[in-house]
């Protein structure tokens, strides 16, 4: 296959976006094991949305994010977020009461959860303007918080350990949004262009957490999430999938063998394709506070959530490039 090289003459804006995405991908793949002298950029620019996350050490000495952030510190934005045609887009379908706490179920996981990061860890897509009074927190596996430097990097963007879900949903006064990629690492092994497989039928822990704290459930579907990367063929039952699943059980995280484009050519590499993401936030499902929910109550709410998620997907799929004959595959 011939290599498709990037044009020599591209606008500086495009070059800066590529550099920013390269930094982001590098941080996820290598920051946990990189020596400190390679960590030279305390300013993170999410290039596709043009927003910044600054590192901030408050008086208590604990690293914490200043969120949401204006983009006046960003040399690319001129004081306002950039809006390139292929940036992530956050779509609001219903208002959310800031006096409540919410649990967003994010689907699909994708390879690197790029849509969740861009929409809920930065102000690139204007979360604060769309949902005033709410602060989102993307929940990640505990494994990532055991890595020096990487832990501080992800916390600077608002990410939290999944174990903190009770703390967030139990906050008095509302205004907190816990965002969880429900399919988790196993679902990343299904991520490839055109895939619509969600691992959700047996995942009910987030339902129980919502009931225990009376947090409203909100289904979120990110159209285009699976279009960012190709993946080495790994059908169920294959040797590749068997090794991946074995490593996932041992390490607690999946290792998808993905590839997309490079910096100076478009034929191979680890950068995502320049493809749009439209993350649609559904209407809230109000949940009564039930400190000790029964299995029947969990199953009922889980069924309601699945109905709302499917309806959200079906109502929006043709707007964002999904053929009308395609449907979600829930496993």
UniProtKB/TrEMBL annotation:
Keywords: Acyltransferase, Endoplasmic reticulum, Lipid biosynthesis, Lipid metabolism, Membrane, Signal, Transferase, Transmembrane, Transmembrane helix. The keyword Lipid metabolism applies. GO terms for biological process: triglyceride biosynthetic process. GO terms for cellular component: endoplasmic reticulum membrane. Its EC number is 2.3.1.-. This is Acyltransferase. One of its GO terms (molecular function) is diacylglycerol O-acyltransferase activity. Residues 1-34 form the signal peptide. It is an enzyme of class 2 (transferase). It holds the Pfam family DAGAT. Belongs to the diacylglycerol acyltransferase family. It is a multi-pass membrane protein. It is found in: Endoplasmic reticulum membrane.
């Amino acid at each position: 296959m011939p290599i498709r090289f990037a044009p020599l003459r591209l606008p500086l804006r495009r070059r800066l976006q590529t550099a920013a995405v390269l930094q982001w991908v590098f941080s996820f793949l290598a920051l946990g094991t990189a020596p400190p002298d390679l960590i030279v950029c305390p300013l993170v620019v999410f290039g596709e949305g043009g927003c910044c996350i600054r590192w901030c050490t408050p008086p208590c000495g604990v690293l914490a994010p200043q969120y949401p952030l204006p983009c006046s510190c960003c040399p690319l934005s001129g004081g306002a977020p950039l809006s390139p045609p292929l940036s992530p887009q956050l779509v609001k379908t219903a208002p959310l009461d800031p006096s409540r706490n919410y649990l967003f179920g994010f689907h699909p996981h994708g390879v690197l959860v790029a849509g969740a990061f861009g929409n809920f860890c930065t102000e690139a897509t204007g979360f604060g303007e769309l949902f005033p009074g709410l602060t989102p927190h993307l929940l990640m596996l505990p494994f990532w918080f055991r890595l020096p430097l990487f832990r501080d990097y992800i916390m600077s963007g608002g990410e939290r350990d999944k174990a903190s879900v009770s703390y967030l949903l139990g906050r008095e006064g509302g205004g907190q949004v816990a965002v969880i990629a429900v399919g988790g690492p196993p679902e990343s092994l299904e991520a490839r262009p055109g895939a619509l497989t969600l691992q959700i039928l047996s995942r009910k822990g987030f339902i129980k957490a919502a009931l225990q704290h009376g947090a409203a459930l909100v289904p979120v579907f990110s159209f285009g999430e699976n279009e960012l990367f190709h993946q080495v063929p790994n059908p169920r039952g294959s040797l590749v999938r068997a090794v991946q699943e074995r490593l996932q059980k041992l390490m607690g995280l999946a290792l998808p063998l993905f590839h997309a484009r490079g910096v100076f050519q478009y034929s191979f590499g680890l950068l995502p394709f320049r493809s749009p993401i439209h993350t649609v936030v559904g209407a809230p499902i109000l949940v009564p506070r039930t400190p000790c929910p029964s299995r029947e109550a969990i199953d009922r709410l889980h069924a309601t959530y699945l109905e709302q998620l499917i309806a959200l997907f079906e109502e929006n799929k043709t707007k964002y490039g999904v053929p009308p004959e395609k449907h979600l595959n829930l496993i």
